[in-house]
Amino acid sequence: DSLLLKSKFRGSLLGALMGDCLGSAYEGDELFSAGMKLVIQKSFDKLQGPHFKAPVIQFTDDSAMTRAVAESLIECTGFDQTHMAKKFVKSYYLEPNRGYGAGVTTVFHKLRNNKFVDVLGPAREQFNGEGSLGNGGAMRVAPIALFYYKNSELMVDTARKQSHITHTHKTGVDGAILQAIAIQQSLLLDPKEELDTCKFTDNLINEMDKIEIDEEGLGLVDPSPYKTQLKLLRNLICEDGDGPHDEKVVHQLGNDVSALHSVPTAIYCFLKAQKPIPAIQTENPLRRTVQYAISLGGDTDTIGSMAGAIAGAFYGEEMIRPEILKHCETSDKFRELADQLFHLATA
Ligand code: 8NA
Ligand code: MG
Ligand code: MG
Ligand code: MG
Questions:
Q1: Which residues surround ligand 3, an ion (CB under 5 A)?
Q2: What is the mean pLDDT of the chain?
Q3: Is 169 in the pocket of ligand 1 (CB under 6 A)?
Q4: Would you say 165 and 125 are in contact if contact means Cβ atoms under 8 Å apart?
Q5: What would the pLDDT profile of 130-160 be if each residue is shown by its tens digit?
Q6: Which spans in 165-299 are helix H?
Q7: Is 52 a pocket residue for ligand 1 (Cβ < 6 Å)?
Q8: pLDDT of residue 256 exceeding 70
Q9: The overall pTM is greater than 0.95
């Protein structure tokens, strides 16, 4: 029904915002100790508590770029690569200190210098022509999954093309596609029914099987690395009994800024949080998703944001605690963008 779907659109963008804002304080390389996880628990409890006045937590590049993707889709009533590239660049130069990846700013400089005559060249030149394999293409993809949720082929194609503006490495691009498919799958499920986490994973494996074709003869060591990661994920979620230790999750799935070692992790967090997690004290499965993602350490804002976008698309806005959301910068703006995307996508 349309009220639920509208709530799911909001949930996805607000979940993405929440993960970014709450995760940004913990970005780093380490795996967190039990003590640090308790610090995260207490901080979430405090934010959710009734009378906690604190400065609003600012969002970072993840949400800045998600907003740019959403605004471009809305202003163009669809995807326009040059328009979106201009949005990225404008948004970056207005607020360059949002914690952008170290490489991607070079793309923005070059795009501005070539006046967008060549929109794809700068991204292709990244990392000696390898292209970026960072998770920047995936972290911002939620609005595309929402806008094109009815048309999988167009959704995949657009996820790919928006990625090409900054990320051309095959794993950077395919990570964006996988994240979009995960959001779309969540959007189409009924949150009142128990989620079949193995089936959810198997569907993703089947979809990535069609995507991961080594068409350019890249000679990758593993021609289908996402399938490999998703199979590891499947073992962790379906066969690892009580649930593996966080160390094993991070060791197998990763928690760094590469798309390959963060997108499957975000999906795993969403699936694992369907059930209580002993070290995470909350009844709310969306908060559990985001808090668990952040507690894995590494690229916490981005993995938190991607996991939040998937979880929000499943549960809808109702599962996002307003007490927490009011601590996140410009949540009203993200709700409004979600509504505009909803109207266009369902028109
Ligand atoms: P990006 O394209 O600059 O990629 C991010 C980083 O990945 C680069 O700076 C490189 O270190 C590395 N990288 C990417 N491609 C290659 C390659 N082909 N060979 C070798 N190294 C490579 O930017 P992005 O938009 O993908 O970055 C997104 C991430 O950066 C997000 O996590 C975002 O929050 C931000 N960020 C992360 C951290 C952190 O985790 N410590 C800190 C600040 C900002
Ligand atoms: Mg509060
Ligand atoms: Mg960030
Ligand atoms: Mg990050």
A1: 60-62, 99, 301
A2: 95
A3: yes
A4: no
A5: 999 999 999 999 999 999 999 999 999 999 9
A6: 170-187, 197-211, 225-234, 246-253, 263-272, 285-295
A7: no
A8: yes
A9: yes
